[in-house]
Amino acid sequence: MLGKLFLLFTIVPLIDLLVLIPLGQEIGLIPTILLVVVTAMVGSWLGAREGRQAWKRIQEDLANARLPGDSVLDGLAVAMACALLVTPGVITDAFGLILLIPASRGPIKRFARSKFTNMLQNPDVTVIDLNQRATRWQNDDVIDITPESSENPRGTLDAH
């Protein structure tokens, strides 16, 4: 997970920089800076508006005794969009604007829902022992044992 985050926070800004430099050479420094600032401002405004709507839908779902699954996914998409839009760069801005369009969230929400369902159906627990390397436990690695009976009640020490 940390490796993926490292790649996300290093590769994406580098790609954005590789796009911004030629763009700045083509249209000029000031227009490029204005483009980045204006998209961040417009994205912040749209994000706040869409975020309020998602929050309102969550509250309505809860008030009507419905689980707000779809509304929560909308809220997560809006939060991701805002994070992408305030990050300087043309590529991140494009993905952020796409996430703010409600119609474009359908495939993203289906993907997220399938990932969450998979995580719930196939839990993956990491067990870490300070003296050993991390190991992974999967559902199919169950070891069934029969405990030994003890004459001592639970919580007492054996007398030697």
UniProtKB/TrEMBL annotation:
InterPro entries assigned to the protein according to its UniProt record, in alphabetical order: FxsA (IPR007313)
Pfam families: FxsA
UniProt keyword annotation of Transmembrane helix present: yes
A cellular-component GO term for this protein: membrane
Chain segments annotated as transmembrane: 6-23, 30-48, 76-101
Keywords: Membrane, Transmembrane, Transmembrane helix
Cross-referenced PANTHER family: UPF0716 PROTEIN FXSA
Protein name: FxsA family protein
